[in-house]
């Protein structure tokens, strides 16, 4: 009886998304800090899984960061979103997938608000026509890009060249998964596994051979907080929240962290650097930090992509300890080179050189 | 029932986010901001629910409504399906509309936020854009970002981006026609009006403090004079 009840609850959090033909929209933060992750997503879906993921040059920001920094009104954000959906429709798609979690939360909030208040939807439809002369449409299916990788996690595992396994010991790597707050905290039924037991990243980790770490502050925010990071004098908020998470996960000795949100990998990576500079403390072994990855970077490593093609050279916390554990070959001399081996010098080392 | 409360109830985030708060304090218990700042979302929702205009006006002029990080963790946990985070967003919108935001140190930061984010959207089509993300204002971005900033074109090209390029791809140059559409959206949905209100109130405040526009920007962006922290 208890098992059946759990199965029923679990089934409420299994959303149905199609396996092909998506209109793809990018993330402002990820384009700026992890552009290779979006490139890898499109390469995996198009060239490894042979799916149709279409991108238009005409899509823009959804305005989510500005909306959650209270810089633009709700109707502005909704009309920008209506424009994105209209572009999807114009190019003949009805499935919409976004790279950003802030966008995913805002798209979900917008669709739910329109559903509940049809007069608002009608007003936005008018504003869209007045400003852009575009036909209003809504997606039949809305997905986050991590939902797609989750859906195809077993196919990726079948093509795997490397696993989330320590090659020397044969033990599964111990992995912290961090889900962006706006993935399912606002609308639990819109995320795989809901808000209590989100499975979107845990499913990838298990399929690729790793072991998911449970720790007390697993669901705590990374600390972005929009205005709490974007304004310099507020950044203590952001740092303190990340610090709380690292202190909580440290005893469980993670080998790596996987995230599905644009800001989270940036903060979990960069604040480790700041904590190291300020307090001389690092959370990994031998003075190293804990490497932080996007799910596309991990999928890429599993599939055998070159680490420097995945953009891992722009992480502040060195990824080499994790590559060594997985037995992934890499050429250190190419880490900081440009296209065709162009010499770009190299970044200064942080005070804690192992970071 | 007062005028400010009436105006708040016009906001769809109040319609969605405030049903019947039982004042249990679960939102405050789960809130990352409440741990860091002198912040209590339970109390804020209780004041709004009281419909007391004098108290709501104090709230709109206060520091406290600017402490939330909008992570929305409160929504998951509220036993009555309220959304304190959405209530905060409605309060902030009204505070800016009334010009009350300039009465608080944290509220005045909206000048810097609006300038940076709206300029990025209207000029480039992105909320965050690497050419305006200066390492001097972001030391936490690390030595890697300093290197990346120095070799921006080469490094983005190496990572498969299309910085300033035509066509699709990460950080492509968004066509002017699309940026014009964003501007028209701003003009007819209240964003341009919000920018103008924030600029007007902020420049009045700058004048009162004897600061130039640039000096005022740096003051609100970098300085904290009051004690906001939860000790």
How does the SSE layout of this entry go?
The complex is a heterodimer of chains A (355) and B (231).
Chain A: H1 2-12, E1 22-25, H2 28-33, H3 35-48, E2 53-54, H4 64-68, H5 74-90, E3 95-98, H6 101-116, H7 118-132, E4 141-144, H8 145-151, H9 153-158, E5 174-178, H10 181-184, H11 200-207, E6 211-212, H12 227-230, H13 235-249, E7 256-259, H14 263-279, E8 292-294, H15 295-303, H16 320-326
Parallel strand pairs in A: 1-2, 1-3, 3-4, 5-6, 5-7, 7-8
Helix pairs in contact in A: 3-15, 5-7, 6-7, 8-11, 13-14
Chain B: H1 3-9, H2 12-17, H3 26-30, H4 32-36, H5 41-50, H6 53-60, H7 73-77, H8 84-98, H9 105-108, H10 110-124, H11 142-150, H12 152-158, H13 176-189, H14 191-209, H15 213-222
Helix pairs in contact in B: 5-8, 10-13, 10-14
Descriptive notes:
The complex is a heterodimer of chains A (355) and B (231). By secondary structure, chain A is of the alpha/beta class. In chain A, 45% of the residues lie in helices and 8% in strands. Chain A has two domains: 8-145, Glutathione S-transferase Yfyf (Class Pi), Chain A, domain 2 (Up-down Bundle), CATH 1.20.1050.140; 160-341, Rossmann fold (3-Layer(aba) Sandwich), CATH 3.40.50. Chain A has helices at residues 2-12, 28-33, 35-48, 64-68, 74-90, 101-116, 118-132, 145-151, 153-158, 181-184, 200-207, 227-230, 235-249, 263-279, 295-303, 320-326, and strands at 22-25, 53-54, 95-98, 141-144, 174-178, 211-212, 256-259, 292-294. In chain A, α14 (263-279) links the parallel β7 (256-259) and β8. In chain A, α5 (74-90) crosses α7 and α13 (235-249) packs across α14. The longest helix of chain A has 17 residues, at 74-90. Chain A is globular. In chain A, 56% of the residues are buried. Chain B has helices at residues 3-9, 12-17, 26-30, 32-36, 41-50, 53-60, 73-77, 84-98, 105-108, 110-124, 142-150, 152-158, 176-189, 191-209, 213-222. The relative contact order of chain B is 0.12. Chain B is built from 15 helices and no strands. Chain B is mostly helical. The longest helix of chain B is centred in the C-terminal third of the chain and has 19 residues, at 191-209. In chain B, 60% of the residues lie in helices and 0% in strands. Chains A and B meet through α2, α3, α4, α5 and α6 of A and α2, α4, α7, α8 and α10 of B.
